Amino acid sequence: MLKQAELINPLLVEALGCNNGDAGSPNDYNLSSLRGKTAAKIAANMDSIEKSVEPNIHRLKCLDCGKKGEYDIGEVFINIEDHNINKEDPIDHYLQCTGYFRCKHCNSAGNWEIPNNMLQEVTFALPLLTVNPDFGHYSIGKSQAFDGSMHRYSTDTENHILKKIMTEGQNAYYWNRLGNIYKQGRRPDLAAVAFEQSIRIDNDQLESHYSLGNLLIEIGRLKEARAHFQRVLRTAHTYNELKAESLRDFVSSALQQLFYISDGAESFLSSLPTRENILEEHEGIGIGEGLEIDLELIPDELESFYPLAEVYMGQNAKKLPLKKRMLKYQPMNRSQELRMKQNKKKKRKKERKKRKKK
């Protein structure tokens, strides 16, 4: 029997370009078959990775090999909206499982017989979910991939994204989304592989740097985590895959994590990339010089990092609704500040002359 925590989709190996024909069969693939340095470190420290919810174990039958086994199926979404349109269809056609699991016997995935006890749980949970949308491991709703497609199992979503990568070409954003599927499915080792491939393609993929930083913090690799969070700050002004408010939350959280792993406020400030650091890679960044802001950083309050996050967002900060901006004016350079002061002086002189004439 194969170890569930080590099972790998052969398609992942192929998409990474690691299939060199050395493995005797797809079941022989392991983390050493894949690219990246972080996955092995995480695999060696899986107990350190925080689990947001308790395992949801069910005994399922693989319809490919006919054998049964116990699997953590994760959170289960019940798509009541679509089921109400097709009430004659079995309810299990409208269940989506977030856990990442493959057959322990044959390594196939996505072709399962749902056990009666699980269907009974769903039937019991449904009336309670009308009052509370979340009950135990069950929720009313549906899970969509980044392109709007819907899949019953996380392994189906994995296959969908990998096929897009193999037909459309290497894409940092696709690899990031695949990493999120693995992370949600409780395979942080595979998530690290996907995130590292993402930044290998595009080192400015902010979300992948952020996620890698968080994974590395959880296993105590603080120095490596710091480098990824610093990269988030270096790329925030050019990143366009997130809405402005979500981008600010990512950048603020990266700042918060840097504060957490620093030895005091002075160490934190010295770890922040300077405008000159960023200019080494990017021109026209929209991050003004000579900007002075009063900071009151409260480690447990994400919003206290918003003003500093907006500085690193540069031109992207202008996309925030005006009433939601923490910086009430946009960063400006020193010459702009001097012109403003000179204009104010001229205005005051004119007002004084008018008063004298009166």
From TrEMBL:
**Keywords, ordered alphabetically:** TPR repeat
Keyword Cytoplasm included in the entry's annotation: no
The answer to whether UniProt assigns keyword Chloroplast to this entry is no
Its protein name is Tetratricopeptide repeat protein
Xref: SUPFAM superfamilies: TPR-like
Q: Which Pfam families match?
A: TPR_19 (PF14559)
InterPro entries on file: TPR-like_helical_dom_sf, TPR_rpt
Source organism of this protein record: Scopulibacillus darangshiensis
Task: Region Disordered: list its residue ranges.
Answer: 331-358
The TPR repeat units are at: 206-239
Which residue ranges have biased composition labelled Basic residues?
A: 341-358
